[in-house]
Amino acid sequence: SLEGTWPDVVRWAPTGLLSGLVLWAGMQALKLASLSTLTVVRNASPLFLLLAEWLAFGQTPSHGKAASLVVILVGVCIYTMDDLQDSSSDPWGIFYIALDAFLVCVDSLYERYLLALQPVNLSTGTLVLVTNTVGLLPVSLLLL
User: Fold this and answer.
1) What is the tens place of the pLDDT at every residue in 52-73?
2) Which tens digits make up the pLDDT trace of 86-144?
3) Three-class SS state of 129
4) CB neighbour class for 41 (10 Å; exposed up to 12, middle 13-18, buried from 19)
5) Whole-prediction pTM value?
6) What is the largest CA-CA distance in the chain?
7) Are 8 and 120 in contact (CB under 8 A)?
8) What is the phi/psi pair of residue 61, to 5°?
9) Pick from 14, 24, 39, 47: nearest CA to 96
10) 36, 43, 47, 122: least buried by Cβ within 10 Å?
11) CA 35 → CA 46, 83, 122, 135, 139, distances in Å?
């Protein structure tokens, strides 16, 4: 069932825009970079999410979690630098991968904020409908 208030729909609407932009950036990345590069670079996202949750939500990470994610980041940097030295790689592909990863992080943080810290009063059906409807706007860019 669809339940909720218009102010909460408006507050939730940016998640649809972000989700659509994630799809658009991911498609642009796949045009210019390999799937393995996309996957490896996106694996660095938890490090930035850990830092963002610490700064925005006050969740202090353990030293073990932070250290393990730094090791992953070093591996991502080595892989990416090696990939860029390959003559078939396009630096714009790495740009779109980084943009995609950034948008995923922003979307996840905003959703967590709206679901856990400043909850929206919307049913699951309404959340899905708003996300998908608003998400159609940036996804339509894929037609260009």
Assistant:
1) 889 888 889 899 988 998 899 8
2) 766 788 998 999 999 999 999 999 999 999 999 999 999 999 999 999 999 888 877 87
3) helix
4) buried
5) 0.84
6) 53
7) yes
8) -80, 150
9) 24
10) 36
11) 19, 12, 36, 23, 20
